[in-house]
Amino acid sequence: MKRNLAIVLIAVAFLAGTITSGGFVYASFDNCEDPLPKGKPFLEIWEAICDLQDQINALDTRVTDLENNFLDPTPNCLGNAGCIAGYVTQHIDGDTLKVYGKSIRLVLVDAPESNEPGYAEASNFIANTCPVDSFVVVDEDDLQTEGSFGRIIGVVHCNGVNLNEAILDSGLADLFASFCSSSEFENSAWAQRHGCVPSCDPSYPDVCIPSPPPDLDCGDIPHQNFTVLPPDPHGFDGDEDGIGCES
Q1: What are the two backbone dihedrals, phi and then psi, of residue 142, each rounded to the nearest 5 degrees?
Q2: Residue 220 is part of which domain span?
């Protein structure tokens, strides 16, 4: 691509009659500003082409980000619902933003409405932590795939930050506690730290182990040799003797 642009540039320069001894100074597209060609008309053309190259490079970066996250979204996504990669296009308030124009509602987050105290602070926190044009991965809530008023409900990962967790930690929004039992993320550490009480699966009456998702293995829990009843959704009792995670 750079080679093609260089060819175009040389052709334009030739037609403009600017390629003379000392009239054209070679520049690398890796650094369009140094050195620069001589002559104001040619300089304007050069700057326009360099600006175009910058836009192409930015687009290449976005395409690479999207390819990487669509091909392997699993590092930031749990369960089986949508794992959406894209760029922030708009902020709505302290618990809603748009990714490529699609509204995303931060699950388990209750930020102040526009007529309530703290609205501006919560909205600004989201805007500053995850500015427009930031690349995000949205982990849709497996238990709320129906959405809310046309919005996707989930956890937003932006700039290495769990946005749901970050605004709750800031104290600028509250946990939407009434939705804990309706959310895939009820048993997440950040949700429990802010008030979600874990629900215990009845298949494990001796200990408190949440129902999936996510699916857990024996290495994911601190318990051993506990009673297991059908249907054993996590599969802790591999030999079906009624004891899970035997030591």
Answers
A1: -60, -30
A2: 200-247
